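Recall the central idea of this unit: under ordinary conditions, the amino acid sequence of a chain determines the structure it adopts. In this exercise we apply that idea directly, starting from the sequence alone.
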Amino acid sequence: MTKGPKQLLPRLREVREDLFDAVRQVSRPAWIWIVGVFYPEVTVNLELDKLLRQAIELGEAIQGQGKAEASTQFTEFATVAAQDPGVSFTLLGLGGSLLLVLIFGTPLLLATSRLFAGLASCARRDAWAQTPSPSLAHIWARGEGMSMSSFGLSVLLGLMKATAILLLVGAPVLFFQGVLTGGGLEEHGALLAVIYLPIAGVLILYSLVMGALHQLALHSLVENRRGMTSALRHAWRLLRVNSTLSVAYVLMELACVLVLTLSVAAVGLTTSFICLLAPATIFLSLMLYGFTGVLRAAFWSRAYRRLGGATSGDRLGGVGLSPGQS
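Accordingly, the structure predicted from this sequence is:
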């Protein structure tokens, strides 16, 4: 068990070695970098102003301030639709487009989730040693039977994030509606800072925890062929029991995101003076994102092991390694 801030610096050194080892493992370019472009990451939403404005609109709708205007607009639209048959065809077209999105989008999301699971399975050190730089077909095969669980895991965590934003940002709007309306964001900035900065801090911490949970739960899911809720509970136990080591992994993940952002910005700045290099900018940026995604899978595979998670190669019946072992 690794607890206490005094243990953070030594743990960061250990985690740094895991990161360098993962870089050496996945540094060879491969087609699986395509999957890495979309691989889940630990993200933090700092657009508090945008969240506040959305929350104000939500509060107005709840309190009925926008009902009269919405009712008027709906009445006008219904009148136009009744007089103009073209509008009815437009509505049918929109409905058909939505149906097509559901028909073709759902299989695409399930296929992407299967590739995520396959990449997480192949990123383990011993699995990678057996098949260095695995192909897309190989990670597709490794993800067999885990499409629904991987997709459900993403949906469940997304709903948890949305619920947290609704409660932490939307609920206070109902109590401070008088301050927030009538140009409140501009006229009462100091008061809003006092109200929402602590909430922003909680949201940041919550986002970091959700991101780490997603990474560990995905590896728990593929290593033990368990369901999404069981994988989430397992990931939470790993985070809670090994809190200091978990913080070290999250901090190193954020450092990787910062380096990626600066690298993409540097590539864009370097090629911005020559218009013909715009396609090269897009290609190099996608390469950076793809490499970072595959690196993230390998890095959190090591985190899962070091935090005590068991893998399919263990003979201990799910006991796993003790924290600090690799």
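Confidence is low (pLDDT under 50) at residues 65-71, 315-326.
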